[in-house]
Task: structure prediction
Amino acid sequence: MVVEVGYAQAWDLEACAPWRPISAEEARERDAAGLPYVVVYQEPGREAPLEVRLVSWRDHYVGLWVYDAQGRRTYDLDMRLLDDPSRLRRRYSVGWSYTDPEMAEFDKACPRITVDLFPDGRGRRTEERQGQGGGSYVTSPGLRDDERWMDRPAFGEWPLLSAQVHGLIEPPGFEAAEVAETAEPGDGHAPATCWRPPRPAQPGPINELFRPGVRVTDGYHPEMTVVEPRRVGTLRVPSGLLAVSGPDIDHGDGPRITVPVPPGEYVLDEARVRFSYHCEWRDAEVTTTEPTAVRLLVSETPAANWEMALGPDDDPRLFIEQQIAGFDTDGATGCFADAGAWDPLIALFERGLIRGESDLDGYEDIDDGSMFMQRTWDEASGGELMSFATTGDGTYPVWVGRSEAGEVIGVVVLVEGMPELLPERDGTPTDAAV
Result:
């Protein structure tokens, strides 16, 4: 069997076709420079590709997409180039088993198996079944260490990794595909329909959540208006290291997230939105105000950019699309605290909240209607802790706002999901939405 090998700057998911085909020589140059490119393996006479390899060394990424004769993706493999330049780590994969030739690509009724492999050797295999019983079945992947890695082939020497899937017994012969001329020469930006390397979760318009008058929607309520942030109190961080964590989780290794800030006392406030909705049990239109985020404000200067804070074990080279890092909670609770006094502050939190010790020095419940619930303080250091409610259990990312000079101006935790900006009243979008 002969397989044609072609190269392109990108892969158009909507058209299921290469975008801006390039020669093997240009692809080799992009490979050496770490720039993104794709490799397309095509069987002559077959409309859909056999597989597409997506490469971006600057993003530590190689992907493999396998297609069936109907042009549906049947397998998606995510591999990462880490510290050993000769090996690729298998990071993530999804396999779809279409039960009917007419079933649409990624149909929700299509059984699929997802394998998520973690850096510490653990992993999770999730089988989503259809039909009688349905549901998901989660197990350990059971892969040996050598099955988690692949030797990195040199450019032009990659095998057809999907050969077995396509029923090929003998290794295929490879021929260079003809490079079609493009009407748009150059290295312009690929359209939004083209593949790009995986990106972790993005911050969204955090500044706007604290700007009164901005209109947003959470997808459920069609229009919500940001109102003046509510200032709740202050937090002393004399050590110059802010902790953001779940106070209800075992903290043998200390807080999950820490952010260096100048030693000092900082304002704590809440972002809030006001909206109206129809209350069924009252059979009336009701207007209410709810919080969307909590913030430790370091400076009144608006943030020029926001970044997701990482824990000590978080490696952004391994993040899959929209992955988050943050603190975990089993009790719908987070906290801001002075990391320098973490142990005594957490001990006071547990004694006051969990053990219910009365008249405990260094602990108080907060009953002012805000998201903040408990406060503890360490007399020896002057450090403080303030806990706040989240809207549920799970992992919450911590967003650090920085000025143009890179200085921390604020630390934010969204207690709801990130709302979407709505156009201003005159129909134009806000600056952040452009």
Residues 207-433 form one domain. Residues 342-354 form the longest helix (13 residues).
